[in-house]
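HUMAN: Mind making up another protein with tokenized structure?

ASSISTANT:
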Amino acid sequence: MKLVILSSRFPYPLEKGDKLRLYHQMKDLANHHELHLISLSDEEVSDQSIETIKAITESIKIIKISRKSALSRTAKALISKKPFQVHYFFSRKVNFEVNQTIDQIQPDVIYCQLIRMSEYVRYRKEPKVLDYMDCFSMNYLKRQNFESFPARLISSQEAKRLRSYEREVAANFDRLTIISERDKNEIDASSEIIVISNGIDIDYFHPINKEMNCDILFVGNMGYHPNVLAAEFIAREIKPALRTNYRIRIAGARPTNRVKKLNRKGIEVTGWIEDIREAYAGAEIFVAPIFSGAGQQNKILEAMAMEKICITTSNVNDAIGANHGQHLFIADSAAEFALRITEVLQNKKKYKEIKENARQFVLQHFSWKKENNKLNELIIKAGKEK
């Protein structure tokens, strides 16, 4: 079948969760369908990234959007009921270009990633699949607890708008998907939503023998608000609660100024690392004190696949479903994180079984092949109902 894929970001390089998800889905879908990617981008896309995606697509259409214009549209959204992020990504000019391209391709099915892109295709007659990925209304609802005025007011308003919009657009699509049961349960939609989890490339993320060069590691897109909060929590809450000056590393693309300021004695902020496995392999413990945000945290699964002791929050584990004390450890306060970190680092040999259990858990529950097969079957069924 001809499959048009619509995304708000070009799906490479893999420094953000939505890119990672879409890229791995496209790799598998390319074995079954003719893929045509239409992608917006508010930044330059490298030739290397384009060549990577060319290998799995029949055509690529990149539509550059101006951040200045996008922010202007977002500001005007105060008099609208649609989510701010929908206004950021939607413009009439781009709408004409997107739909003209789709008309030329004449697809059998349209696969739309994220509700922020749904406005472009929600009223088209072709069979359409919408991937919510995360429950973004839940994300913004949780963000309010960690923000001050006026950011809290904006998050509160966005949460309400998203909640309504998530329900509204569901009726315009033939199939709906989402990343976890937790996120599914938070979406207030009358239509059925199918859980399509992310997977982990077990052959890529495997245990690597390397000299340990840090004790505590956190990785992620350091421009993503929940990750920024987590990095600050490590530096300002967990580190002071530790009695030993353990080596801490914070790694990941796009570190904000708030994250960069955390770089000090005992804390290294690295920025982008070409092969993130190097960071995992050199760490004794992986921590993810993420109290806000939605969706599935791939970083935890990657660390577990590399047989690292992971300590994270109930919020993160709700979307994963691992068992505390068997696959990882759960901590919901700085004191609990400090206690677990100290216990593990002072008794490393004691936790060998948990490391092995962690990898086996990922092997059993998070396979790209299995999840992408579910997605492919769903797309085929949508196409047959054309």
Remarks:
- Residues 2-199+367-384 form a domain with the Rossmann fold fold (CATH 3.40.50.2000).
- The longest strand covers residues 34-41.
- The chain has two domains: 2-199+367-384, 214-365.
- The first helix runs from residue 17 to 29.
